Prior knowledge:
The protein is an alpha+beta fold. The chain has helices at residues 15-23, 60-69, 92-106, 133-136, 141-157, 164-169; strands at 6-11, 28-38, 46-53, 86-89, 116-125. The protein has a single domain (6-162), classed as 2-Layer Sandwich (Peptide Methionine Sulfoxide Reductase, Chain A), CATH 3.30.1060.10. It contains six helices and five strands. A hairpin with a 7-residue loop joins strand 2 and strand 3. The protein is globular, with a radius of gyration of 15 Å. The protein starts with 5 loop residues before the first strand and ends with a helix. The mean pLDDT is 90.
Amino acid sequence: MTTTSSKIGFGGGCHWCTEGVFESLLGITYVNQGWIASTGDNSDYSEAVEVCFDPTVISLADLIEIHLHTHASRSNHSMRGKYRSAIYAYDDSQFKQATNSLGRLRSGFADPLITQVYGFGSFKKNRAELTNYFYSAPDRPFCQSYIEPKLKLLMTHFNRHVNKNKMAEVGLK
């Protein structure tokens, strides 16, 4: 990470989807896809991504808002152990900032958010052949059914943050 970089973890639905969303944004240096365990409660691993970003290009608050709108952040279901709706903070300051952002954003949703902020514990990276899942083969049926609709939502609702050159590489405009 450079001196202007920050890192945050996000868990939501499938890590392929979450990875595709964050890889499509301006100001993202890299996205590591795999599993994150938190400190304290829910210390078991859950599908998630580590996102390294430049806060002078995209703020943590914007990343959190995008995350909340691109996965089922209001739906508690039987797979929540595997797909925890979470923000993983790397230090106390980031934890406080994420908690405050989440609190401010709650009022913009009709249903209660289930997303929680946790302290980052550890990360296990996925196998290389399963990373960069969307951008390595966007024609896969899974990509077209699950990831592409999230990217279209990004272009509609968060257009100023979208890396349009990257989207154009896969035919999304």
